[in-house]
């Protein structure tokens, strides 16, 4: 992430204007993201589904870019190696956000080289990737941009695994510092065979998610595509992970200092937020006094504000649910009281109704028994009718025989 130092009087490039003005709630944010990325080529040929937690991750990146101004545009570049899981990407995002961002104070290329040389001689790279930003559109066309991005970052992105990223950055900058210590205009650095061997078979990038508040985002993307490490990957905006991956990444980015809802209770979160807010206030006082402060102060304050807003929203949601449950409990208690009053007033009638229901059930049973007896009697009557017909037939036959026997010859 490349963030400018920030100007208190400068207005953000997109806060309530442009394509991001509809990011007021989750539903509008999802609809707006769908329109923004509609028709964008997808090299994985997979559908893009905007889950709620995925939108949280995107809004977290956009939140970090609120420090950008029309005079100092910022950019966010999220990289992920092939096969990296949810926790790995969340940890990488958290490491990028919590890194100390160092802004260059030089105004020319020689001063920038000297500043990089001095900065690489320190041990400050141990906490994560460093940026010598802000990376503006004009700065990308300068030789300094080619030197930093194409030589160093290109090699890192092309070959380094997620475990060796910090060590590789440190080694590359230290090697450049030793090679250029006695030269004002050194030649472009190339990797030796021993350095190239550790890149063989390393993980390659699977996706690039790039946001830019630039007034010409397409032009900005074309400038990024000038570097081989980015141009060879094509345009991939979002890789459809399992949806809970984006929640982990977004939470890690927004929480900044490792606030984990599973490991910290509400009181502990409040204490951590209070300490972070106090530290941010001290950093702002140091900035106003002209003292040297870490370049990540603006984002630090933004992260504190974001975490506080998240907890406030969660508290409001819990309070709303608690009030709803209280209303339901009151309604149930009122219904119980009404039932007791009804039973007290109409106790005898209620018992009579219950007795009548019992009598009706017994009469239904008796009627059912009588119907069954009637069916049996009907069947027995049919049998007797058949027997009667048979007797009549026998009597008729006997009459014929008797008549024949008594008739005179």
Automatic annotation (TrEMBL):
GO biological process: microtubule-based movement
Signal peptide residues on this chain, from the entry's feature table: none
Keyword hit for Transit peptide: no
GO CC terms in record: dynein complex
Family annotation (InterPro entries): DHC
Coiled coil (UniProt feature): 353-384
Lineage: Eukaryota, Sar, Alveolata, Dinophyceae, Suessiales
Basic and acidic residues biased stretches: 177-188
Stretch list, region Disordered: 176-196
Gene Ontology molecular functions: dynein intermediate chain binding; dynein light intermediate chain binding
Keyword field: Coiled coil
Record carries keyword Transcription: no
Organism: Effrenium voratum
Protein name as it appears in the record: Uncharacterized protein
Entry-linked PANTHER family: DYNEIN HEAVY CHAIN, DYNEIN HEAVY CHAIN, CYTOPLASMIC
